[in-house]
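Please fill in the sequence for the structure shown.

STRUCTURE ENCODING:
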């Protein structure tokens, strides 16, 4: 995580072919003893794109708004990916939280949730503006969910 001219920049690991670690054991055959992966979920079958790995998340304050921009690895359709951003405004994990709308994600502690579902395929970004959350310190959680696209 970096801070550049007042903008928080979070960069993530990109294009992990084994996906997320869901706790399953022995579900992937693409591990190496020199550099094992933690993930146990594979990308879709041949002909489908598992796109939109979140490369960078950049939230910044502009006036009385929070501007959120997610840079994705790839974006083939403006509506194929949703970027979800949950913000904990009171630094209390016991309040808030729950399901992230249609994203099938559940986490604790957040007080406001914002879903952005319109991307720009020319820049591989999804961005949006929301009212500045209350408080002076926030904990931010982000996730992206893509629908695989079939490419011929």
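FILLED IN BY: designer on duty
SEQUENCE:
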């Amino acid at each position: 995580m970096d801070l550049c001219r007042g903008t928080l920049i979070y960069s993530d690991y990109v294009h992990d072919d084994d996906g997320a670690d869901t706790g399953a054991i022995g579900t992937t055959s693409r591990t190496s003893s020199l550099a094992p992966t933690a993930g146990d979920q594979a990308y879709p079958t041949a002909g489908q794109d598992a796109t939109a790995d979140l490369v960078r998340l950049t939230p910044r304050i502009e006036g009385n708004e929070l501007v959120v921009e997610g840079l994705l690895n790839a974006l083939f359709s403006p509506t194929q990916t949703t970027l979800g951003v949950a913000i904990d405004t009171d630094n209390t994990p016991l309040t808030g939280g729950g399901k992230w709308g249609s994203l099938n994600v559940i986490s604790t502690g957040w007080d406001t949730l914002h879903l952005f579902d319109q991307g720009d395929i020319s820049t591989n970004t999804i961005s949006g503006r929301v009212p500045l959350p209350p408080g002076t310190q926030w904990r931010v959680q982000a996730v992206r969910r893509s629908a695989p696209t079939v490419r011929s």
